[in-house]
Specification:
Layout: H1 2-19, H2 30-58, H3 61-95, H4 100-131, H5 135-152, H6 164-172, E1 185-188, E2 191-194, H7 196-220, H8 226-238, H9 240-247, H10 257-273, H11 282-311
Antiparallel strand pairs: 1-2
Helix pairs in contact: 2-3, 2-8, 2-9, 3-7, 3-8, 3-9, 3-10, 3-11, 4-7, 4-8, 5-7, 5-10, 10-11
Length: about 300
């Protein structure tokens, strides 16, 4: 199954890069974003079905049901939490005035970097939990605190101009005043200069590190099986770029979604903290996460429609 997973990911990335020119300058239409989003979700569901079929034949129906449900729950949790990452990307591209046709290239590198980073973090996390089981309680407490902080700071946007790493780059490396097409570096009077597009990429990578710290412990609350954690996480991440372009024009309609994501983090963190006394079945976890997400989306759409009606 590890080999099948690697082959599927490699094939999809190759298709994106070489057939659909995913790394080239291109304005992604809503139709194209919807098609790619549907394709990634379909591939993830087919993988879940293949995983169930394989385990059903090898280890029996009970194990197959348990692992497939864990995969689907982990996938939904990561997909849900990734929405917040999408909104941060929108803020980054708006700050640097990066047009849509250049965003695709930045996100391609961002997703590839995220794949490497999360693979390392998940494998390291699996080893740590296997050696030090009490870390699950630390992760649980961290998720509860993060969920509460997300609600507390829901209306506060970070000041990207004050980001320490961006300030350090500007102070130690020459940066052009404007974008230079899709290039990250340019030569000016014999001097190699970075472009604002590189700074946008740096912030995209930083944002993924921050969100990975939240989302990876959340999936460990569902299962500690490194294969399920890694595959569900990466399938969600691989479809994130398409989801970004799908939501790019709709971000203002989901203003209350952060509260739903915060509730999901608090629920999963609590689940980890009480695991020794109350074991919440994976199917129940899947239902709770789906319900919270659905309620948050419905509330956001209602709030957006009500705000628009008042403006009219």
């Amino acid at each position: 199954m590890w080999a099948v997973f690697a082959a599927v990911v490699a094939a999809m990335l190759a298709l994106d890069l070489f057939v659909f020119k995913g790394g080239h300058r291109h304005r992604v239409s809503l139709k194209e974003a919807a098609a790619w989003s549907a394709a990634w979700v379909t591939v993830a569901l087919l993988f879940a079905a293949g995983l169930w079929w394989h385990l059903d034949g090898e280890l029996g129906r009970v194990v197959a049901n348990e692992k497939a449900l864990a995969f689907l729950t982990g996938y939904l949790v990561e997909k849900s939490l990734a929405v917040d990452n999408v909104f941060v990307w929108m803020m980054i591209f708006s700050f640097f005035a990066v047009p849509l046709e250049l965003q695709r290239r930045v996100l391609l590198y961002g997703i590839v970097g995220a794949i490497v980073l999360r693979t390392v973090m998940i494998l390291a996390g699996s080893w740590l939990i296997a050696e030090f089981h009490w870390l699950l309680y630390v992760f649980g407490a961290f998720l509860v605190v993060t969920g509460i902080k997300m609600v507390w700071f829901a209306e506060h946007d970070p000041d990207l101009a004050k980001n320490p790493l961006i300030r350090w780059i500007r102070n130690h490396y020459p940066v052009t005043d404007k974008l230079e097409g899709e290039r990250f570096f340019v030569m000016r009077d014999g001097v190699r200069m970075a472009t604002p597009l590189l700074l946008a990429l740096v912030l995209v990578e930083i944002s993924d590190v921050i969100f990975a710290v939240d989302s990876i412990p959340a999936i460990f609350a569902i299962t500690t099986d490194p294969f399920i954690v890694l595959t569900s996480n990466l399938f969600a991440i691989l479809g994130l770029r398409a989801m970004y372009f799908l939501l790019a024009d709709l971000g203002n309609r989901f203003s209350l979604l952060k509260y739903g994501l915060a509730a999901i983090l608090v629920f999963i963190g609590t689940k980890m903290l009480i695991v020794e006394w109350v074991k919440i079945p994976v199917l129940v976890s899947l239902g709770v996460v789906a319900l919270i997400l659905a309620l948050a989306v419905a509330a956001s759409l209602w709030h957006s429609a009500r705000t628009q009606a008042r403006a009219d």
